[in-house]
Automatic annotation (TrEMBL):
SUPFAM superfamilies: Cytochrome P450
Protein name: Cytochrome P450
The keyword Iron belongs to this UniProt entry's keyword annotation: yes
Pfam families documented for this protein: p450
Organism: Nocardioides malaquae
Family: Belongs to the cytochrome P450 family.
UniProt keyword list: Heme, Iron, Metal-binding, Monooxygenase, Oxidoreductase
Length: 453
């Protein structure tokens, strides 16, 4: 009797490359975002401080975050959570961010199979939280990357961009002046201004500015943990598109280098060694995030503080009387409503912080926005005051070796952008309908309707 095969014909169940990619992405989302998402939600329901803080970032009430921040502060300088520890105290945040006992990145999973699954399913595209990104590397790699990059992105180089930033701002304001009715300040000004500037840094042709803006906006949530499946796919697609675009862009810069800073970075060498392709991509991606995302949020948050419903318009009068205060106004906006709400560090070796033993592998969440409102450092910390003498002591740009690479650029753009906006439209008013971005780490406005006349 002939043997009957129970094997299905191959044609009936072909596994396409796209199917394999989709499966890998699904598995990666499950272990990197799906499970943490469930854990964060469960922790929030139990009253866990870190879980509640993450949940508060999605609340309709913008003050919900700050209420949880003050609850965390009331528990002491460093509080245990279901995920490790959390702190809002300025001194502790600064210590953790600056200490060699702590490093970037999340703790490795205690389950070997989870770690292997993450490794095998991680997309090969650039990501701000994966090596060789400066945000995810430690010495000696971090030291080499940063030294090469800071040679190019010096304060002097950034200052040379001031005149061009002023030109771009005036062009955008001219366009706003021709519009009638309410204007969305984010899409009309807060986003295109830093995008145009960072595109000059990256040597991007003007025809591609809008594409860079769209990719950067879609990838903003890549810093968040616990994305839902839809958000994960959107971020994954944006990062893949950005990776492919960067490959072509770096090829163009090598063939026809310009005077832009990115062309200089492509040529930069230390002891004969420069950045390889993946390192250049990671750096360009981080420069885009540091020079674009933070500034979009800075501009929108500052306008809401100065001219919003809950704003303090008397501060505008102070700035008109003394325009030299605009730089300090930027620092105060960074302090009170920072573009990045929080970050985290993993303990690399057992240590002690604020009288608590921190075991190796423990995660410490440092709430930058909480540190910036520490009453031990800032008098009347919830008050917006452009004349505050120590406003620059904020930690909005982090601290230590991972201090924000784009800090000087963001400061310059903030000062130029805000001063130009209110010089042109001194009676600008924020209209109803402002909407916060859904991101958890990055804090800013998705839409900010204003009336300029």
């Amino acid at each position: 009797m002939a043997r009957v095969s129970t094997r299905m014909p191959q044609a009936l169940y072909p596994v396409t490359r796209q199917a394999r990619v989709t499966l890998a992405r699904s598995l990666h989302w499950g272990v990197s975002d799906g499970l943490p998402r469930l854990a964060l939600r469960a922790a929030a329901r139990r009253g866990d401080l870190q879980g509640r803080l993450v949940a508060a970032t999605a609340a309709a009430d913008p003050q919900a975050v700050w209420r949880v921040v003050e609850e965390i502060r009331a528990r002491g300088p460093l509080s245990p959570t279901a995920f490790g520890f959390v702190t809002t105290h300025h001194a502790v945040v600064k210590e953790v961010l600056s200490s060699s006992a702590f490093g970037a990145g999340l703790p490795a999973s205690p389950q070997p199979w989870v770690a292997r699954l993450v490794e095998r399913t991680t997309p090969p595209t650039v990501h701000p939280l994966r090596p060789p990104s400066l945000l995810a590397t430690e010495p000696p790699d971090h030291t080499r990357y940063r030294r090469l990059v800071t040679r190019v992105f010096t304060a002097r180089a950034v200052e040379k961009l001031r005149g061009r930033t002023e030109e771009i701002a005036q062009g955008l304001l001219d366009r706003m002046a021709r519009q009638t009715g309410p204007v969305d300040l984010v899409s009309s000004y807060c986003a295109p201004l830093p995008v145009a500037v960072i595109c000059e840094v990256l040597g991007v042709p003007e025809a591609e500015h809008q594409r860079v803006l769209e990719m950067g906006t879609a990838a903003a949530a890549s810093l968040d943990m616990g994305l839902d499946w839809t958000a994960y796919r959107r971020v994954d697609s944006a990062l893949a598109a950005f990776d492919a675009w960067l490959t072509d862009h770096l090829t163009r810069l090598r063939d026809k280098p310009g005077d832009d800073l990115m062309s200089q970075l492509v040529r930069a060498r230390e002891d004969g060694v420069g950045l390889d392709e993946q390192e250049l991509k990671a750096t360009a991606g981080l420069v885009l995030a540091a020079g674009f995302e933070t500034t979009v949020n800075l501009l929108g948050n500052a306008v809401a503080l100065l001219a919003g419903e809950a704003g303090v318009r008397s501060q505008l009068a102070t700035l008109r009387d003394d325009p030299s205060l605009w730089a300090n106004a930027v620092e105060e906006a960074l302090r009170l409503d920072p573009p990045v709400l929080m970050t985290a560090r993993t303990c690399r070796e057992e240590t002690e912080v604020a009288g608590r033993r921190i075991p190796a592998g423990a995660l410490v969440a440092t709430v930058l926005g909480g540190a910036n409102r520490d009453p031990e450092v800032f008098d009347d910390p919830a008050r917006f005051d452009v004349t505050r003498g120590n406003a620059r002591e904020h930690l909005a740009f982090s601290a230590g070796r991972h201090h924000c690479l784009g800090a000087s650029l963001a400061r310059m753009e903030g000062e130029v952008g805000l001063r130009a906006l209110f010089d042109r439209f001194p009676d600008l008013v924020v209209e109803p309908g402002a909407r916060r971005r859904p991101t958890r780490i990055l804090r800013g406005f998705e839409a900010l309707p204003v009336r300029v006349a």
